[in-house]
Every structure is written in structure tokens, then in C-alpha cells.
Specification:
globular; alpha+beta; four-stranded parallel sheet; about 20% strand
């Protein structure tokens, strides 16, 4: 039976690899996508003119990514293993030791829209990064619904994420559950999606999609800059309206910037429900935590069960803090390492070791960085006009409480993920 299961897995891997390398068909139904976006934006009274809708095409690849179903299941098990580790008292004590003081306040919510990023290869899924307030879920849901079948493998037709049909309901239930972990009322009356100068943000259209979804289910939803918030007499308000809940899209994860002081005070006074909040980031998404998640011996000593330890040992690349005392060894081994700033986001300030100059390496030693064993991304064949090329692929699981809300891919070229690659962008996943 074990051999039969192994053979099935090998067949699925082979099919996915062949399809990703040689299937160049465009699965995106552009008319269906534009129609969906037009209905959602123009019909929602949220201020996006129809003429602006084509600009959203910059987000989307027309090409799907094929992933074996077994790899999806493995990634989901990895998410559950990581979140099991994050509940261990010794783990929490360790990661809070390098977290800002605000992370010691635990108001209860789990954190909306966690994002777990993976590279896929012959060794199976490899965890690259964990993110709070992971962007792109709403856009990816629209994209996944506008797909056509193509390049079917011989056994089973490919399918998009089974979670897609229930995505809208799951998102609403997520925010409702986040609210109820901190409040006794059934739902918040008014929610604010908060980011710095939100209309200038690359993912601003996603804020509008979230606004439409939540408003349609009875939660008055606003999109605000934190400077529009006021706090007095135990109430957080904006324009005279009370804000009960904040969907936090800020990348100031500890709310340390002076511009965010109003939100910080209301949060610490328990006057508003914030999700995701500073403790969620500190416990799950601080990049230094990967040094612990990639240390099987320590996880065993802290009480994580053997099955989860072995799973994390296979799938979390070895990660270490960059220390000046280790400079000689790090420079020697740099070609097999990937360097990331501890406080970074959006691929800013990250470097492949084989691309490093001495000057950049010296800057890394002076900053707060981790060094992660280099795991190459997967690849996807693309046809751009009449030219065949290859893009790199990251896989993201959007989750809540360890349960998958949606799976999606990003196709790109270059050192890190971006939206500048012709034919690249968010891409749906076809499970095979």
C-alpha cells in the first residue's frame, strides 16, 4: 500500500512538472474577469470608475500553476504544525524575548489572513516565509473564478482550490470570530480597513473588494489612513463615527510609528478589536522565529510531538541569526544562503548570497538579518507573444486558525517576487 501511494505521488509530481514546463495555454477568461470586477466595483458604490478596471490587469497572470494535491495537503499540515509549535509555552517565551513590549498584550484574536509562502521542488514543499496581514487574497479569489480548463493530465482534470466556493462566507466568519474572541456582541457595527495613505497602496483595489464583501453582510466598512482616527473617552472614531474593529494592513507591526499612536493607545486600552495585531506578528511572523522552527532538537525539548517535529525538519530550511562573530563562515557559505532583514516586508532588503558584494555584506552585518538556507523556487513555462520563457513560482496559503481559506501562486522573474514580469503576477493553482 505504501508503494502504491508513493507511485501515485510520483505520477502526480511528474504530471505537474510536465504541465508547468510545457503547457503554455492561457487559462484566464479575461472577459469573465473584467465582468466580475466591473460588477464588484461599479455596482458597490465604492468609487472606482469603470475606466480604471483594466489597470487591475497588472496584478494577474493569464497562466495557471499546476500543483500536486499531495503537496497542497503537506503545506496544510505544515501550517498546522507551525501553529501547534506556536502554542508551546517555551516557544512563546523565546519569541517574545526578542519581540517589542506591545507583543506581551494578548487581546485574544488569532489574526486574520495569515500567509504561508512556499517553494516547491523535488524535496517537497519548503517554507520560505510567514506573513501576517497577507495581501492578495481577495484579488486571487476573483482571479480563480475566471479560469478555463486546459492541458488536462491523463488521470484527473485539474481543479482550483476546493475552498474557493466558500471563500466569501469563510472571510466573513473569520472577522466575526475575531470579533467574538474579544467581545460578546455577535458582530461589529463598523470596521475600518487601515493602512498608510491607502489610496496610494499598490493593493488598494483589494481594500475595496474587502469593503464590499463585509458591507454586503451588514458590517459598515471604511478604508482609512490611521491619521483619520481619533481616540477620546474610550472610543476610537473617524469623522465622528465609532470604529469597533480594525482590519490592520499596516507594516508597522508593533504600531511604533508616531502616526499610529492613536491606534496604538486604543488597542492597548482594549477599546477596539485589531486584527492582525502585534502579538500575532511576534508569535508567528517575526523572521527570527524561523531559527526556532528549523531547530528540531529544541522543538522536541519544548514538547512538540514527533510527527510535527519531523515534518518541520523536512520543510523549514535551516535559518540562523546573522551575527558579526559568524562573518567569516557566512561569507564562505553565502552562495547557499538567502539573507532577509528581520523587520523587512514585501521582499525589501533581501539578497541571494551568490549575488552579494562585500559592501552589501558589510551592511547586512550591521543590520538585523537572518540567513536562510537557499531553496530555489519552482518554475513555470510562459509564452509571451511568440516567445517561450520561464518564470519563478511561489505558493501562498491564506489561512485562519490553521485552516486554509485559499491557495494561490505568484509568477515572477528576478531575485524576489514582484509584479513587473510580463506574463507574471498572481496566478491560480490547479490541483492535479
Amino acid at each position: 500500500m505504501h508503494d502504491e501511494t508513493k507511485n501515485i505521488q510520483q505520477t502526480a509530481n511528474t504530471n505537474a512538472d510536465l504541465l508547468n514546463r510545457h503547457c503554455y495555454c492561457i487559462t484566464l477568461d479575461q472577459d469573465a474577469l473584467n465582468s466580475s470586477l466591473r460588477d464588484q466595483f461599479s455596482g458597490a458604490g465604492i468609487g472606482l470608475p469603470t475606466s480604471a478596471i483594466p489597470e487591475l490587469n497588472q496584478f494577474f497572470s493569464g497562466t495557471a500553476v499546476f500543483v500536486p494535491e499531495a503537496d497542497i495537503l503537506t503545506m496544510e499540515r505544515l501550517v498546522q504544525a507551525i501553529e501547534a509549535a506556536s502554542r508551546l509555552p517555551s516557544y512563546v517565551e523565546k519569541v517574545l524575548s526578542w519581540a517589542p513590549d506591545i507583543a506581551r498584550f494578548d487581546p485574544g484574536p488569532l489574526g486574520a489572513f495569515m500567509g504561508y509562502d512556499f517553494h516547491l521542488g523535488h524535496e517537497g514543499p519548503q517554507l520560505i516565509e510567514i506573513n501576517t496581514n497577507a495581501g492578495g487574497a481577495f484579488l486571487n479569489a476573483v482571479l480563480a473564478r475566471a479560469q478555463r480548463r486546459c492541458c488536462q493530465p491523463p488521470q484527473h482534470p485539474p481543479a482550483v482550490s476546493p475552498a474557493l466556493d466558500g471563500f466569501d462566507d469563510a472571510v466573513f466568519d473569520m472577522f466575526k470570530h475575531e470579533w467574538q474572541t474579544q467581545r460578546t456582541d455577535s458582530t461589529p457595527r463598523r470596521l475600518a480597513i487601515v493602512d498608510d495613505d491607502p489610496k496610494s497602496q499598490f493593493l488598494f483595489p483589494e481594500f475595496q473588494l474587502a469593503q464590499r464583501l463585509l458591507s454586503a453582510r451588514g458590517i459598515d466598512t471604511l478604508v482609512l489612513d490611521p491619521g483619520e482616527l481619533e481616540y477620546a473617552n474610550g472610543e476610537l472614531t473617524a469623522g465622528g463615527q465609532r470604529i469597533d474593529m480594525v482590519y490592520n494592513r499596516l507594516v508597522d507591526f508593533a504600531l511604533e510609528v508616531p502616526h499610529h499612536e492613536t491606534l496604538r493607545r486604543a488597542y492597548l486600552d482594549d477599546s477596539v478589536v485589531v486584527t492582525p495585531h502585534p502579538r500575532t506578528h511576534a508569535v508567528l511572523a517575526d523572521k527570527r522565529n524561523l531559527t526556532q522552527l528549523s531547530d528540531p532538537q529544541t522543538l522536541r525539548e519544548w514538547g512538540l510531538d514527533t510527527e510535527n517535529v519531523e515534518l518541520l525538519e523536512r520543510a523549514v530550511p535551516k535559518t540562523r541569526l546573522v551575527l558579526r562573530d559568524d562573518a567569516t563562515a557566512l561569507w564562505r557559505d553565502r552562495r547557499s544562503l538567502f539573507f532577509k532583514p528581520v523587520a523587512g516586508h514585501g521582499s525589501k532588503g533581501v539578497y541571494r548570497g551568490d549575488k552579494l558584494t562585500r559592501r552589501v555584506f558589510d551592511n547586512i552585518l550591521q543590520g538585523d538579518y537572518i540567513a536562510q538556507d537557499l531553496v530555489p523556487p519552482g518554475e513555470r513555462g510562459l509564452r509571451i507573444d511568440d516567445t517561450v520563457t520561464t518564470g519563478k513560482v511561489d505558493i501562498r496559503l491564506y489561512t485562519y486558525g490553521g485552516t486554509t481559506l485559499l491557495t494561490a501562486a505568484r509568477i515572477y522573474k528576478g531575485q524576489t517576487t514582484n509584479f513587473r514580469t510580463p506574463g507574471g503576477g498572481f496566478a491560480p493553482i490547479f490541483q492535479v
